[in-house]
Amino acid sequence: MFIDIQFDEDWKQDFQHRLHQEGPWASFELYQLAYQAACEQLVPSFTGLKAPEHLYHIQPYDYQLETARRVVEEMNGKAILADEVGLGKTIEAGLILKEYMIRGLVKKALILAPASLVNQWSRELNQTFSIPAVVQRKAPVWEHADVAIASLDTAKRPPHNEIIQSIDYDCLIIDEAHKLKNDQTKNAAFVRSLQKKFCLLLTATPVQNRIEELYHLITILKPGWLGTKADFKKRYESGGDVQRLIHQVMIRNRRDETPVNWTKRNVINQTVTLSEEEEHLYESLCTLAEHAALPGFSRTLLKRELASSKEAAFLTLKEMDLPAEGLNAVFKKMQACSRNSKAEALLEFVQQEDEKVLVFTEYRATQLYLQWFLKQHGIPSVPYRGGFKRGKKDWMMQLFQGKVPVMIATEAGGEGLNLQFCHRLVNYDLPWNPMRLEQRIGRLHRHGQTKDVKVLNLAAEATIEADILARLQQKIGMFENVIGRIDAILGQSEDTKEQSYGR
Amino acid sequence: MDDKAMLNFSESLLTTCGAKVIDRTHQTITVQLTEDLDKALMNRPFYWHYIEKTNGIKQPKTLTLTTDTEAKADAHLHQGSPRLHQLFRYAKSQGAWTCLYDQAPAGKQPEPLEPWLNVNVTISKFNGLREDTPLSIGLHLISGARVEGFMDNVTERSFSLAPSAYTYPVRPLITPTAALRRIELFITETLSHKPKGWAEEAIIKKEAELSLLDQFFQDTPDDPTYQNERRAIEERLQPKISVQVINGGLFYLPKSILHHFQA
């Protein structure tokens, strides 16, 4: 068998040049020191990790070291790191990157992370791993920085995109990779166009709604690994060995398998019975939507909003072109409706727990309403949402950590929040995607949480929220079937017990 | 390298290159850098540019290195410390070529010193991962005799850049260029007899990955992703060996050393 051997020509040429010129030569001391330095930097074996001894500030957990070892030795540096939230996927990715850099196999690396996490990556790589990583801001740094960090949004825009596409990256790391779940998006197309030898996709939620999402992620990682999409679907639906294939390119550590002491997570689903007037209101809205022949999407939206608060539904209804007669009937019922049973349930929970409570809602109007409603009962609260500036977000966080007992956040506020000091969470209304619930819970139930966490999921009885709850259970079932078990997201309330974990 | 070795290495390197020790405890060292060291290590090109343009007074910095995790210093030395690796790189760049004469104690008669070519190399095998083996070879430029472990054998001796008064160098019969060729041939020959399991495994992996890829893109062979991925797999898994010279040079040694090596 022929193996190509490359000899170092540069040294030879320089040596001959120096022989000719009779110097300059190194002293024996320097010559020995050079030899010693080189021996110190050797990679003594194909196997084993050299990165851990290079770390100064942290001692990684065994499961993190084992993950890094498997990715490097067994998976050829292409993997989905799918640990549950809070287990330190960044540390694992840093270990792998560092290992390849020490081994001289990676020089140019690109890290794509959500904008809110870019600085955190930079700190982690520079401080913990002594990897000189540069954050892309305005002027392009791609060519002179060997390790660059950027948000996907920055990277895919000109002039950056073309520069990045022209660079032969040794390693590509994508954080929160579930954002690439849809292969039709610009993000996914951009990532597919990048050149990469090694690739790490980080996500706690490789499947959110549909099994195809996982297919798309793996196809970015290793095109062809799962065959064509049609092959894969057929195989999955006929109960083929997709798990085995998936677990060869994915590692998922679970909290309860780690030596870290995790506090418990208690999840309760509370089905709230609506008052008579609320029921009438809901029915009248359903009738209106039916008569006006609204598209399914709008219909669902309105029902979900109304199940949240009439304020949320009102704002949408106002914008819609609907027959005045039906609309007025609904508005009249809205005026007549003086109660919000879910808000009352929330109030009861807040009063009874006598602890800090983080409330998530899907709608801004509900967010405002809940603030007002709680205030009526003498409970102050702070809002939190994605649109806030960094400084305002920090200020809201500080207030909540201080004396304000309730924070009401919208979905976009969820990312990057660290609220270990809080132990109570209420999902005031439910998203379709169970992994978004997991991400929300992860804001509290993460590294550094010292107490058990209680989660309350509210659902209005006999409304669309009951359907959502059932769908959530189904999706969790699929996730567990393909990816592996998952910590409780939904509780086991009366109505959902039968379907829960049903596969 | 343990803490002590790291500190000793740094001290030897810096003082060999002309730095003056200002303060030294068992965990910390502070040195006054020379201009060259400052330029090489401290990363302040604008300062030096400015000083040289304005003919200002050159003030090289001091550098404090420590292995004490609590202490304040310019750099904490540990296995992965960027400063330590910078010093490694600097040492390698400064100590790559040499021509040295043995400093045997003066005898009664002038003693001939015979030329050797020493080359220290790192042999790196790549198969998606990497493994290095160091090799220190000496070739006697009179007889063509070859020894391994050359550095270990000369490390206790003392050398200088010019022959001492009671010695005289003998001219090589084999030119350094020819000797280098012989060493390369020897390495190629040796490697061809070593086990190749590491490379065969990589080839199998590579073929498997390529075949999955080919199938996947069989209907769209012009997809740029296909070409990118194909090249990446080739680069990652095609086994290869690289031989990097760490350093090398001519050593003039007493005649007796040949027997010593062969013993």
TrEMBL record, chain A:
Transmembrane segments: none annotated. Residues 342-490 form the Helicase C-terminal domain. One of its GO terms (molecular function) is ATP binding. The keyword ATP-binding applies. InterPro entries: DEXDc_RapA, Helicase_ATP-bd, Helicase_C-like, P-loop_NTPase, SNF2-like_sf, SNF2/RAD54-like_C, SNF2_N. It holds the Pfam family Helicase_C. This is Helicase-like protein. It comes from Salsuginibacillus halophilus.
Automatic annotation (TrEMBL), chain B:
InterPro entries: YqhG. Pfam families: YqhG. This is Uncharacterized protein YqhG.
